[in-house]
Design goal:
Elements: E1 4-10, H1 17-24, E2 30-35, H2 42-48, E3 52-55, H3 61-71, E4 76-81, E5 84-86, H4 88-99, E6 105-114, E7 117-119, E8 129-134, E9 138-143, E10 146-151, E11 157-169, H5 172-192, H6 199-216, H7 223-228
Parallel strand pairs: 1-2, 1-4, 2-3, 6-11
Antiparallel strand pairs: 4-8, 5-11, 6-7, 6-8, 9-10
Length: 229
């Protein structure tokens, strides 16, 4: 059986972190939480749940997740966000994979809980994510705050059944606050790369995305929450 390290980055996640950690107990041989100096009880809760907690200054989502990968002591890594948890079906799938892995990376679907509703349309499901990988093949890339886990020099990836349960926003206010934070981070990244937005980005892309998600990807079937998204 292959040993598995679960890695999680956190900042003020006291309402989520216990659910996340509890969902991997029984499949994780090591749980690593890299915390960027939370001011709430995140670190204390994580430690009580059996995680090894490491404090590390936040430089960006991509940088923090790559640092977290480096802290794992096992070759197999499962990377989760603090507001995520494993469904029972996914837990069982991972248990089977640990017995005899045949790929170097595994994707899984992510199902999002948004403002009291599980979102199954709007392009949000199935939201396939590469999350279980060999440490020496894995690297986080992208443009902050939007990160992407990739396999370096390999396309040996399989898909496994079960869902990552993503408890995203508890209210519209939560969502708007996150949009404000992510917009500022994204703007800073684009400025640093000397990338300037054009008319398409400012006016036409938002309209295109609305029609795509709400009509073509059946967002209207997710009721009012589908419209908010």
């Amino acid at each position: 059986m292959q040993a598995l390290s679960v890695v999680i980055i956190t900042y003020n996640e006291e309402r989520n972190i216990e659910r996340c950690i509890r969902s991997v107990i029984g499949i994780a041989d090591e749980i690593v939480v890299v915390d960027s100096f939370s001011t709430d009880r995140t670190r204390e809760i994580a430690a009580e749940c059996g995680a090894r907690v490491i404090k590390h200054e936040f430089e960006g989502y991509i940088q923090q997740k790559n640092y977290a990968l480096e802290q794992a002591t096992n070759q197999w890594i499962l990377s989760l966000d603090a507001d995520e948890a494993l469904s029972e079906k996914l837990r069982n799938s991972i248990k089977e994979i640990k017995l005899n892995p045949s790929a170097e990376g595994y994707t899984m679907n992510r199902l999002t809980y948004y403002c009291g509703r599980w979102i199954r349309h709007s392009g949000w499901y199935p939201d396939r994510k590469l999350r279980m990988v060999l440490k020496n093949k894995a690297h986080w890339s992208g443009i902050n705050p939007h990160d992407k886990l990739e396999l370096v020099g390999s396309k040996n990836i399989s898909h496994i059944p079960g869902d990552i349960l993503h408890y995203s926003y508890y209210s519209l206010e939560d969502h708007l606050q996150q949009i404000d934070r992510f917009t500022q981070i994204r703007a800073n990244e684009l400025f640093a790369r000397q990338i300037k937005p054009n008319v398409w980005h400012l006016y036409f892309k938002p309209l295109h995305k609305f029609f795509k998600h709400y009509f073509f990807q059946l967002g209207f079937m997710d009721a009012y929450e589908g419209y908010q998204i």
